[in-house]
């Protein structure tokens, strides 16, 4: 079974990851493919403020990707990668009419095992393009050149109680020896593996932060995250040892080595509060504020000496608001209400 870390790496590959490098101008020549690469990564987990520890599982991985040009295009039809040993792996095709890449990933429990299957040497990608026919490109992966340190979230404790209504700055320890030619990526996914926040991954992107090896923080805008939610974060440092743009005109090739750390980020639930209580004759109107999208049950009784609370309304807090209106019974001297949040 593929680990969550490896799943998340494939999600990041689907953005796509690192096909464009900070400080390098975008390629102007049109091509069916715009980027391809082979990468090795070592994965870590951070569960508290201590340094991250090696993932218990397939912590060492090899991946290969090819990114078609344009959004929602089917300009690439098939891709394989051949290792220096001659073994051929087929890259998984993305869903039709999406902007995702062809991707392959292999996870291992040891560096030695990974290097035995995917050693140094030339990796050959054979790309079947819709308009350009078959393209064959070679990428030379030399001796492992991983970053010196694994990423560590510096404010991990604060990240476990994030107020989603305000801007939150995620901080990490510096990338040791990192330069503007190195790459850093941050992403958050929810329990359904849906990416809810990420840094820029293929050059300048509107509304996103492009990180390099000298950065040590990123701001998550207010109201990006939901209240009372658990998110899975992924922070990685990458060194690219090869960048080529001539083997496949209009596309860029990369060879990279990274260390990546997964972590959790927890948002706090909004404390629901009574916003208005209006009585006009026998008409009653109540309004509470709570967690957007969460379901609340309003209960009532007419005698505090009783424990027989009866549900009178079940509503979703649309936009964070829960409203209730009703006509008060004529023979009740008092009525009491309480609001419960459903699990």
How would you explain this protein's 3D organization?
The strands form 5 sheets. Strands 1, 2, 3, 6, 10, 11, 13 and 14 form an 8-stranded mixed β-sheet that branches. Strands 5-4-7-8 form a 4-stranded antiparallel β-sheet, with no helix packed on it. It has helices spanning 4-13, 111-117; strands spanning 33-45, 53-54, 60-68, 76-82, 88-90, 102-108, 121-129, 133-141, 168-171, 183-189, 195-198, 217-220, 230-244, 252-266, 273-280, 283-289, 295-301, 310-316, 321-327, 336-341. It starts with a helix and ends with a strand. With 343 residues, the protein is mostly beta strands. The model is unreliable at 1-7 and 13-29 (pLDDT under 50). The chain is elongated. A hairpin with a 5-residue loop joins strand 4 and strand 5. It has 2 helices and 20 strands. The protein has 2 domains: 4-266, no CATH class; 273-341, Sandwich (Immunoglobulin-like).
List the helices and strands and how they pair.
Elements: H1 4-13, E1 33-45, E2 53-54, E3 60-68, E4 76-82, E5 88-90, E6 102-108, H2 111-117, E7 121-129, E8 133-141, E9 168-171, E10 183-189, E11 195-198, E12 217-220, E13 230-244, E14 252-266, E15 273-280, E16 283-289, E17 295-301, E18 310-316, E19 321-327, E20 336-341
Parallel strand pairs: 1-14
Antiparallel strand pairs: 1-2, 1-3, 3-6, 4-5, 4-7, 7-8, 9-12, 10-11, 10-13, 13-14, 15-16, 16-19, 17-18, 17-20
């Amino acid at each position: 079974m593929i680990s969550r870390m490896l799943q998340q790496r494939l999600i990041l590959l689907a953005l796509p990851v690192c096909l464009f490098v900070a400080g390098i101008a975008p390629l102007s020549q049109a091509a069916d493919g715009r980027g391809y690469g082979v990468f090795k990564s070592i994965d870590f987990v951070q569960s508290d403020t201590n340094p991250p520890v090696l993932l218990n599982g397939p912590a060492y991985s090899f991946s290969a990707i090819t990114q078609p040009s344009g959004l929602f295009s089917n300009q690439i039809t098939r891709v394989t990668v051949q290792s220096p040993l001659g073994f051929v792996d087929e890259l998984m095709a993305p869903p039709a009419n999406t902007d995702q890449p062809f991707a392959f990933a292999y996870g291992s429990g040891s560096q030695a095992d990974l290097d035995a299957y995917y050693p140094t040497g030339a990796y050959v990608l054979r790309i079947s393009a819709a308009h350009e026919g078959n393209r064959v490109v070679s990428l030379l992966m030399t001796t492992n050149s991983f970053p010196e340190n694994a990423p560590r979230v510096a404010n991990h404790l604060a990240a476990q109680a994030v107020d989603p209504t305000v801007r939150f700055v995620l901080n990490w320890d510096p990338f040791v020896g990192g330069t503007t030619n190195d790459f850093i990526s941050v992403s958050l996914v929810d329990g359904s593996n849906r990416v809810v926040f990420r840094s820029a991954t293929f050059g300048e992107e509107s509304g996103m932060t492009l990180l390099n090896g000298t950065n040590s923080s990123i701001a998550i805008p207010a109201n990006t995250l939901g209240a009372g939610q658990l998110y899975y974060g992924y922070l990685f440092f990458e060194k690219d040892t090869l960048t080529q743009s001539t083997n496949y005109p209009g596309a860029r090739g990369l060879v990279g080595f990274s260390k990546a750390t997964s972590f959790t980020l927890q948002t706090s639930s909004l404390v629901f509060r009574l916003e208005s209580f209006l009585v006009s004759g026998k008409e009653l109107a109540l309004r509470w504020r709570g967690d957007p999208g969460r379901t609340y049950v309003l209960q009532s009784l007419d005698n505090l000496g009783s424990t027989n609370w009866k549900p009178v309304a079940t509503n979703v807090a649309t936009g964070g608001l829960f409203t209730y209106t009703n006509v008060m019974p004529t023979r009740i001297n008092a009525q009491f209400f309480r609001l419960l949040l459903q699990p």
